[in-house]
Amino acid sequence: MEPRSPRAAVPPLWIRFGFGLLAAVLLDGTRADSGFGPLDGAPPSRIAIVGAGIGGTATAHFLRQHFGPEVRIDVFERRAVGGQLATVTVNHQDYESGGSIIHSLNLHMQDFVKQLGLKYRKSVAAKTAVFNGKEFILEETDWYLLDLFRLWWRYGISFIRLQMWVEEIMEKFMRIYKYQAHGYAFSSVEELLQSLGGSGFLNMTRRSLSESLLELGVSQRFIDEVIVPIMRVNYGQNISIPAFVGAVSLAGAQSNLWAVEGGNKLVCSGLLKLAKANLIRAQVNTISLQTTGESQQYELSYSTQTENVSETYDIVVIATPLQQSVDAGISFRGFEPRLPEMPGFYHQTVASIVHGYLNCSYFGFSDPKLFPFTSVLTTDAPELFFNSVASACPVNITAGFRRKQPQEAGVYKVFSPKPLEKNQLKTLFKSYYSVQETDWQAYPHYSSTQDLPAVVLHHSLYYLNGIEWAGSAMEMSSVAAKNIALLAYHRWTRQLEMIDQKDLMIKIKTEL
Fold first, then answer.
1. pLDDT tens, 282-307?
2. DSSP 3-state assignment of 388?
3. Cis peptide before 3 (omega within 30 of 0)
4. What is the model's pTM?
5. 380: burial class by Cβ within 10 Å (0-12, 13-18, 19+)?
6. Do residues 189 and 453 touch, judged by C-beta distance below 8 A?
């Protein structure tokens, strides 16, 4: 359980209650007691979470920490536990087909691994190059200093400016762990970003990455040849994406990355067990608002393989995208006014796990024994039909493991905007034994004009995936999970002084 430091003395009941009434109106704009538990302090009896990806399972874990052992937590999932953390099997070995890497500063994910007794996957040496459709324009070597010299020779100090910019953003973002350890929560993504980076973070969600980097003094050549390939492999999009999600992507391109031995999806199944949550394999069809006097609950109607069921919950967390492009299959009833539809759509990215022989001659190497790269990123060239191709390592790496050489049949992971056609596969591979495609609606289609979705949809109805529209990553979902758990707990227990507080760094220093 995360530590929580003592707060200032609790004010008299009449002051707390009066403040609670005012804050409730400000948060919900509806009835004064909306979203709060009964005045007698009774805990919720049942909580529902829709979605068992990293966000949903982390939410179950954090809700258990805050609400204690008595509350029943049901997690609904119509597909496999893990969501976008998934694997496919090739020759009796499993390979990541979804979220593959985790940054070393992702403290929630690190804590999950520690609590669950999981292990870090062994790292395997790799070299990356950037391909423009005709030739390699940037190549990684075995010598770090030589790589730095090449970057400086080709791009000047652009890479230094970029590194300083990303580090400054990450340093500010790391404040969230301190805020959450002290129990503070935020009622919207905007409030959360504002608390971390002020108006600067909010502005980064409203202006393009290219605009921000050019203003920073990063050269157009560096943007085209380095930044664009990173955006393509991480989000399948270009430099028109907002600057904040661009910074998240660039942080994920650094060298201090890791993964979970056995597959990242083990975190999700482990968190469900740790939370003692009930996994219900079903499609949630409707969420209906039920009002009885002053109390409000939610009736969830869902379908299993054998029956249709309806059950009532005090708190509901939706941890799956609600955009029409994803087709969550959930309708809302009894809400007046009706809940607004979620704007925007999710971006299609296809992950193809190919077992075969890489066509090194396509990249200019007639002899595959001379091909030195394990990962190839691409620029935004019109003739390129893929975003990246990389030699894939299994999720279980033994002590004697070695990567297959290019002249050997190996397993490769190809990201592309659409399923690969046969002629495209024949272009990338001399021959292949198998192809397994996973067509992901993996992350939002980002735009600097897109508003950030709400976190509080109704009184005790919360939406986790809104944070993806600021930045999509495992840790972003984990941060959102902790925030929603805190938000639900404080709203239920009427501790409004713990929500949307200003100047938190000063406040925390005062508490200490």
1. 999 999 999 987 789 999 999 999 99
2. strand
3. no
4. 0.91
5. middle
6. yes
